[in-house]
Amino acid sequence: MRLIRFRHARAAVVVLVMATSPAHAYFDYFLSNTVIGTLQKDEVPQYIHLYKDALANLPDGGTAPVHFPAINRRPAIDGTLTLERSRNEKGHKCRRVRSDLTQAGRKERWAGWFCQTPDGDWKRQTSKS
Questions:
Q1: pLDDT at 93
Q2: 104 φ, ψ to 5°?
């Protein structure tokens, strides 16, 4: 009887955890085999800050260095953020940024358009080329 209650309780906890964070779990799985996916939880805000700072301050063609030191068994991450070009869309400044990262000889490139919102923040545009 105790074993059955324990199994039900354990199953309930698993279901509760899954129900409260489905999007987070999806992205953890989606990014788990990528360089960017190896960032520690406290490094993610630093990376976002690097992106926003580059978007706001670098000229077209400008490059900013990226470096996250090795932590425990994770190798260091090095690379660059490059502002490829800018354009205006419906009165908003939009910029294409490229991220080139390397970790233990593995290279990864991400690129996309970001547009500035009225409050000054930057939002990724998914349908731009």
A1: 94
A2: 50, 45
Residue 49 and residue 21 share a domain: no
**For 76, what's the count of Cα atoms within 13 Å in the CB-facing half-sphere?**
6
Looking at the structure, tell me whether residues 67 and 99 fall in a common domain: yes
The answer for residues whose C-beta is within 8 angstroms of residue 5's C-beta and 6 or more apart is none
Q: What are the φ/ψ torsions at residue 119 (nearest 5 degrees)?
A: -85, 5
Domain interval for residue 17 = 1-32
- Which residue matches tokens 């489905």? 22
Q: Are residues 71 and 15 in the same domain?
A: no
**Residue keyed to tokens 């999806």:** 26
Of 10-24, 32-46, 99-113, the one with minimum mean pLDDT is 10-24
pTM of the complete model: 0.71
